[in-house]
Here is the input.
Amino acid sequence: MGDRREGLGRQARMTERQVSLRREGAVALVTLSNPGRLNAMTRAMWRALRAVFDGLHSDTALRCVVVRGEGGAFCAGGDISEYPSFRFEEASLREFHENEVWAALQAMLDCPLPLVAQIEGACMGAGVEIASCCDIRLAGASAKFGAPIAKLGFPMAPREAALVHGAIGDVLARDMLLAAGVHGAQRLYDAGFLLHVLPDAEVPAAAQAHAARIAALSPQAARLHKATFTALKSGGAAAQQLLATAYDYADTAEHREGIDAFLGKRPPNFRPS
Here is the structure.
């Protein structure tokens, strides 16, 4: 029994290392770590990623999140060494994509905080999916993007493919998925996926500076902007609900503070609510 508890403890510590959360003031740094595998996502990492973002939803002290990989790579895709243990049964394959992968991606999409992707090195498959959940993406000049899973004999799951297609556009999505195309950062910048392409060594500082810039602004405005983007993309009832509640912020402290600061020619002080 002691050996089993010790093994479970090691597993828990490993999972904690694989998706870690560190706070630096109002900015959270979420780091993917799978040493020796370019941070490829294991099943435990998908579950840990979901848990991290579920926890961020209610953290009022934070104002922005930087998502990054450890050791000069963002994420090289899924950890294929695990695949033979579950991918050949329809039920377990569905469980993996719907209740592990998509659940984690949905937790990122639902996060009310702005997400900044710090992309270095490999950003493949699952890495492209994770980056697609972020609001702003910065990459190093040598970063590579693709989803060459057709070489492995299977497609990207439908909701994941729709997410990537919406983020990177039809032309590149089709080439990545149908032709196993791998593209450089400049091509992804030209497609509108990346905000900036930077010298590799400048990416970490630039991502954290961008996050700090966001964190200094109104968290209420960021939260409402993200809700607007989501509602307009969904359309229908979500868009109608947005119109019905779009001006509820009128009598709020942040609204008053922002305007008072501007008129008083001073920096605003947006305190946590």
Q: What stands out?
A: The beta strands are 19-24, 27-32, 64-69, 115-119, 122-124, 136-140, 144-146, 182-184, 196-198. The first strand starts at residue 19 and ends at 24.
